Amino acid sequence: MRTRAALMLAIGVLLSGPLYAADAWMTVQAANEVVRIDTASSRIVAHIEVAHGPVGVAVGPDNVYVTHPESGQLTVIDSGSGAVADVWSIGGEPFGVALAETSGRVYVTDWAGDRVEVYKAANGDRIARVAVGAAPAGVAVTPDGAYVLTANRESDSVSIIDAAANRVLATVDVGTAPFALLTGPQGKRAYVANVRSDDISVIDIAEGATVGHISTGLFPYGLALTDAARTLLVSEQRAGVLARFDVATGKRLGEIEVGGQPDGVAVDPQTGRAVVANWFDDTVSVVDLADTNEQIVLDVGSGPRGFGRFIH
Q: How far is 254 from 168, CA to CA, in rounded Å?
């Protein structure tokens, strides 16, 4: 059941859970905004004006980092106040972004430059540039900060980078047009959504090799892990659904209809609710994963993307 937020002013009528929850920070590309969503109440609590065309997002304990491919900028938002704290002029087409909390580094893929750029999170100073495959989109860091991975959309590969040395250790062949990318909580496996081959490649990071495939519906775009990393969530754009897969077996467990062309997806670890950006519907779905027939739909403005880790 899909319910518009305007009809759901009473907190918890559909979605029950802990009182405290993480905020979702949704990039809204055409509106030039980041929308802050309280996942406990499923309400929008702030619209934050940012530079042109925000797409990628990474949320840390103190700041939110947002990329702007069209203007070559990165916006830093103070996650406490919700105010824009800084804007980095970095050039190129910054697309995906990931934060390594252990090292205080921010990793940004440059779609046009075929590289990942490494910055100090504290002040935006560039540390290194690392050449990767063609048109890198998604980027992820293992929990210990030891490895950085990029999904190279136009070369059908994933680059595995030694974070200490800032050099590529391995280039892994995956499916066609890899886009979103995430690493498992133990830092051993990575999962990449291959948009044009309709599957997920499972990568053993230490081996530097693809060790499995999960067949999906048409155009898998966003990825998230839930249920202690036993379940993989995939937004399937052409079908307009959020699908669930058993990580161990690759079996499809079910799906729920969301909005048009769903893009980014993330899970609030406190409530267990999934937040999905419905790119073509200008909405965000907040889905109760305990009962996949229930969700709240929020109108957020034109072109929500949420590409990256938008919930800490």
A: 37
How far is CA 273 from its chain centroid? 15
Place of tokens 């580094």: 105
Sheet holding 241-246, edge to edge: 220-226, 231-236, 241-246, 252-257
pLDDT tens digits, 64-78: 999 999 999 999 999
Report pLDDT digits (tens) over 241-251. 999 999 999 99
DSSP 8-state secondary structure symbol assigned to residue 199:
E
Beta-bridged to residue 136, according to DSSP, are 152
Q: Which of 226, 107, 223 lies closest to 160 in space, CA to CA? A: 107
Residue 51 · residue 29 · CB < 8 Å: no
The single-letter DSSP state of residue 5 is G
SS3 6: helix
Cα–Cα dist 164/24, whole Å: 30
Beta carbons within 10 angstroms of residue 281's beta carbon: 18
- Asked whether residue 14 carries a pLDDT value surpassing 50, the answer given is no
Tokens of 107: 């990793």
Asked whether the whole model's pTM tops 0.90, one would answer: yes
Euclidean distance between CA atoms 265 and 296, whole angstroms: 15
User: For 260-288, what is each residue's pLDDT tens digit?
Assistant: 999 999 999 888 899 999 999 999 999 99
Residue of 267, 195, 262, 263 lying closest to 232 (CA atoms): 267
Using CA atoms, how far apart are residues 254 and 252, in angstroms rounded to an integer? Answer: 6
Element (H, E) at 207: none
Rounded CA gap, 218 and 198, in Å? Answer: 5
In this predicted structure, what is the pLDDT of residue 5? 47
